Fold each of these.
Amino acid sequence: MWELKLPDGGDAEALEVFAASGLGAAAAIPAIPSILPLPLMEGPEDTRARVDAICASVHRLAPFRPSGIVCLTGPGDDRDTVVEGLRVIAGEAERVGMRVGLEPINRVGGENWTFISSLGEAAELLDDADHPALGLQFDTWHVWNTPNVLEEIGRHVSRFTGVHIADWREPTRSWADRVLPGDGVADLPRLVGALDAAGWDGYYDVEIFSDNGSFGNAWPDSLWDVAVDDLARRARDAFAAVWEARIRSPVDPPGAV
């Protein structure tokens, strides 16, 4: 669920439509998704204003009851500002019964989005912030190529607020060039198997960025040019095939940190 897609002043109607759909709510992404400014997205430069905006988004998105509110660090090295921002955002999330999922971003091309690229690095930030409403947003596209990812799944699964699923095109052309599960090189059967073995029982949320010109690259094979109903069916079938092929690798017991 993306806040950017909600109509201004239309939250009540959107809630009614959502409730009638029968769909569940996986991870929600605020309009301002990071504490430090993002070069590739509009938003205030002042970090206090950004934290205030994310807190407002937490309150706006909470009625949809998502599994978590995704948060990025933003690029740079201002760790203290991020830690303090996470504490403030987590406090607001706790007030409305929500959790915040800090998401590490792939080390390949991630310099415009974050300074953390593994579950372990993200967990260290959570330890520094030390708030019960803070967790981790897991994304296969971002962490598939990090060292010891299977072991890190077992170590940190108890902190997961959501799971994003996408596959890695090789060679990849940009951050907005993801492919459906099973169509890339990320070994999703092993990653999904590790999640299953570690005890993850929440949503598997297929998240595809596939630029059709919206971010400056009109890929001729963009999945965003596929009719939405057709793409949704293809995504569901693709994940189902990965699930059937999952490999339950040994991992640390659930809850280990």
Note: The chain has one domain: 3-244.
Amino acid sequence: MAETNIKNTGAATPITSGGTLLWGFPFLHVLTVAIVYFVGSTLPALPAVFAQIESGAAGDPELSSLTVALTVMVGMALGLLMSWFWLKREGVVGEAWNLSTPPVSWGRTIGWAAAATLVIFLIFGLGGAAVDALGLGAPDPGFVLDLVTESPAMFAVWIIGVAILAAGAGEELLYRGFLMDRLSRVAGLRDKIWLVIIIQAVLFGLPHAYQGWGGVVVTGTVGLFFGWLRVRMNGNLWACIIAHAAVDVLAMSLAYAEKLGWLSV
């Protein structure tokens, strides 16, 4: 990975040393990944959908906690597979998905990940209050947390399969890895790293519309911070992955502890 730094002047070097792409190619790549992700995320829900149709019942099918978790995991797995296909064709998998070990140093990486975890919780706390005050509504992850805390078995599935693998590793490889690589290769964006960070943050926030516009804004802000962190770590993704997984694991664990009566909020 080429050396990447945001300088004091505000200028930045590109996060990739690869060739420039015309606008149409990154758009095609991102679109196909989004389609494959969407199709993959619907596959685990199809049995429930068909059962609903066969029964003739009105409304949306009721999905189990396991089914919802599988929609996230399968969708992410297939989305990453499609992303790998495009990156592999250009020979830039290692550059876009920079998981070099050790990164610069594990101590520095863990330190930044710990600080990032704290910053993200502050963004959710202060940002949630701000968007609520603006009338956008605070992010409400209650639907997901109810599924996570359904049983000890489901808690384990969500922690390992969703928080650590699909969200922690998967979303960072997809957004801060694949998407930032595609954007940074577009003619006109190569030397505009902040614009790349902003665009990927917007695209990261939009899928969280199920939490309302407040959720989109707050999650987009988190994506903005993660984009900066990737650049700050010279393109290496480990700090982003560790922090992202830590935030989700802690949030799910706190929700489960509260349900068990171990924690009073």
Note: The mean pLDDT is 88.
